Input
Amino acid sequence: MALEIRPYLPEEAEAFYRVPSIVFGNYRQPVQIPEGGMGILPEWSLCAFEDGELATTYAAYPFTIRLNGAPARAAGVTYVGTLPWHRRKGHLRAITAADFTRRYEQQLEPIALLTASIAGIYARYGYAVVSSRQRYRIDPRWINFAPSLPPAAGRMREATTDELPLLKTIYREFAGPRNLYLHRATVVWEGQVLGLRPGFGGEDQGAALIAVYEERGEPAGYVCYTPKFHADFEDGAGPGQRVFVRDAAWLTPGAYRAIWEHFRTFDLAVRVQMFAAMDDPAFDVLLDPRELNATRGDWIHGRVIDLERALPLRPYAAEGRVTFQVRDEICPWNADRWALEASPDGAKIVRTNDTPQLSMDVSALALLLCGTISPSQAVRIGRAEASPDAPLDLWDAIWRTAYAPHCPDGF
Output
């Protein structure tokens, strides 16, 4: 077997898109090649060619996320798949190692993020589930608030797609201090959020309706949603309308309440469905939170490619110096002892010969970087090992994030 790892060429576009269409069960003839800026540039790809046949596809495109309130470059891994008759040969491991080496040597994005069809695949390559999400499915008749909460003081109005610049402004202010939110490209707004590009980002739910909330004449939130009738649906509520919330952002507590109140008047709806962050306020403000029928699932998987460049990207919540050791089979440049000098104003990471306070796999480091779990929790559940004198209180204070990691978008 002759194996070649390289990007696909422009004339190989049909072969490139054919692989994921077969893998994910939406194969058509002729093969659908995305248009209008929705595709993968050849330079973003890295493929395995077995005896000249394109066997495995892989791509990672550059974007920017918020990392505990600061911008950070990341690589969005996507279009990963191997034709069934070429599997179990190590093609994806070879591609992943080659891509990480390239990003390290060329000083490209030091963090990789993805959404996984099968989570266990990526755990083998040093990824961890850095962000979970909650799925709410609530009958709008149960949308009521704790009596001690003040009512929303503003008003909700319908908006149009012509007001996309306004939505972007609200989103930027909302996402700014948060954790793992994307710096959204227009294609994401038009596709995933507004549904103006059919089939973009999963099941086509149609174009979105938009409502903007204003307080004292100033915009303070928005929600994008799609009502759709289903004769039957997996939620078991029988025939009726479902309201799928595509995106929401709020700048005040009143705006958050107004978004929920907006759906109380949907008399024909049997369920309002949305995905939310793990620290979403719904459980704390709704009168009957069990009626959310909340379920939790994994969402964003993260991997630290170059810890020396990744760790200084985020702000830290306290000042101090900690030492740790990392194990990393695929990225040997990470496998060492390190000292992190952190503060809210910045951080410095250097190699050290000091005795490590914590030792961990690189996957656990991704959990700490994103604030998914605290260092002391990592020790308690076995994701990290602590020395007897490890100052876990200091570790927890340093690595704390203001918000739980969450990304409402898929990639």
Remarks:
- The radius of gyration is 23 Å.
- The chain has a mean pLDDT of 94.
- The first helix runs from residue 13 to 23.
